[in-house]
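Quick start: read one record
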Amino acid sequence: MTKDFRRCVSCRKIALRTEFWRVVKCHPSNQIAIDLGDTLHQGRSVYLCPTAECLQLAQKKNRLSKSLKTQVSQDIYQALSFRI
């Protein structure tokens, strides 16, 4: 059994991917989606710790947009903040 480790785009913590939020730039539509594990979104993705600190840092430093190579709307940050 292999473990799937990922790194938080904000704090750089390494942990199992199930411990993170996954934000995906879906292929081929290029829409941004939050992967909650109930559906499999394919495309470029970033992982983020489910904490207010990491979310605020990611938003302040525009880390999701930089990593996904597209603009991430405030709606995505707002949707994530409701999950804290």
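The chain has one domain: 5-81.
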